[in-house]
Amino acid sequence: MKRERLLAILIVMFAFLSIIDTNFPARSLGYIDLESISLIISFMLVSKLLSVSGAFSKLSSWILSRGGNVAIFLLLLMAELGAALLMNDTSLFFMIPLVIIISKISGCELRDLAVLVTIAANIGSALTPFGNPQNIIIWRHYHITILNFMLEMTPFFLISTGILLIFALMENLSLRKVKIPTVRLDMKLAISALVILSLNLVLAQIGLYWMGLLISLIASSILRREVLLKIDIPLIIIFCLLFMDFGELSYLMGVWRVIPPITGFEIVLTSSIISQLMSNVPATITLLNHISNWRALAIGVNLGGTGFITGSMANIITLRLTKIDLKKFHEVSIPYFLALLSCFLLLSYLSIYP
After folding, report:
1. Segment 150-209, tens digit of pLDDT
2. How far apart are CA 270 and CA 274, in angstroms?
3. 71 and which of 175, 254, 325, 348 could share a cystine (Cβ 3.0–4.6 Å)?
4. What is the structure's pLDDT at 234?
């Protein structure tokens, strides 16, 4: 426990110094997006505070009161909208604890709920340019307006959601109505957590990620000191590895004259498969300078976030938080990926979309 505490302190200090000091070695040696890492740590702390406050339990009671397929659809819709607004990775720090509580109360299979909610977060995040890291990269690189991005990605979002709802029905999931005891909500703590969350979002918009992290750390130590000891260190390390700069690999593609995909069909297929192998963020960075059709690239890398666990950091977060079996995760996620890929390959082959 002492070692984990020391490691947590060192990682936070390293991130803090790297962000406020551009001459710090991490900037030149690590090529790690420590601004994103600091925001993720802040969201992890806020999630813990909301969980302790009883907010997740209260929300789960409201969802379960609807019962049946309506409750399932509400849960998936919440995951999609949350990811579109807060980014898919960070939104799962709020959604997965909620899923765990709902599963325990209702008796519904945790695996099925968790995988479907994760898929919902991945496809919901595709709708906005700030819904996930790969969209942010594409949005900035191609200089697309927010409205245009959302309009172009709406068909992807709607079709993907439709297929997801079909999968939910096929899984025969149903959250039965149960008599739920009164849940105590610490309103002061819940409001404080939401204020911290809002401050992080505002500070992130103006580039002051380090200040948001500092506020989150100080506030957490005052409100509930124990949440600082529950930071998932291995998960943060995984984030650091996945948020490294893959620009060098993209450069080598040009040096080696690797032939880039040209048609929409080729782009969707190539980017989705590469995303499965190396995750969709590094896949985007690798392909970015070699593809002019941003719509096909956005569809491919967002589609590639589903399927194998390596496709998206969101998948790893779910596996880490729920402890569900990897094989069971893939039993739902891979068939969904194949169905979605087949659908969009057909649409691109027929020159319908993108």
Report:
1. 999 999 999 999 999 999 888 776 666 655 556 678 899 989 988 998 898 788 778 788
2. 6
3. 175
4. 76
pTM: 0.75
Q: Output the CA angle 258-262-266, nearest 5 degrees.
A: 95
| β-bridge partners, 68 | 175
User: For residue 251, how many other CB atoms are within 10 A of its CB?
Assistant: 12
How far is residue 322's CA from residue 329's CA, in Å, rounded to a whole number? 11
| Residue whose structure tokens are 């948020």 | 243
The one-letter code for the residue type at 79 is: A
Q: Strand, coil or helix: what is 248?
A: helix
Indicate the angle between helix axes 146-170 and 294-303, nearest 10 degrees.
Answer: 30
Contact 127, 172 (CB under 8 A): no
Instruction: Calculate Rg over the CA atoms of the chain.
Output: 20
How far apart (Å, rounded) are the C-alpha atoms in residues 272 and 304? Answer: 4
Query: How far is Cα 111 from Cα 119, in angstroms, rounded to an integer?
Result: 12
Give the C-alpha separation, 185 to 218, whole Å: 23
Judged by DSSP in three states, 32 sits in strand
CA dist., res. 84 & res. 158, Å (int)? 13
User: Do the Cβ atoms of 233 and 20 come closer than 8 Å?
Assistant: no
Distance of CA 350 to the CA centre of its chain: 31
CA distances from 327 to 27, 111, 330, 334 (A): 38, 10, 5, 10
Half-sphere CA count of 261, side-chain side, radius 13 A: 20
Cα atoms in the Cβ-side hemisphere of radius 13 Å centred on 333: 33
Distance CA 153, CA 127 (A): 6
The 10 Å Cβ neighbour count of residue 53 is 23
Q: What is the pLDDT of residues 250-268, one digit of tens each?
A: 555 554 555 566 788 999 9
Number of alpha carbons in the 13 Å side-chain half-sphere of residue 47: 21
Helix/strand/coil for 108: coil
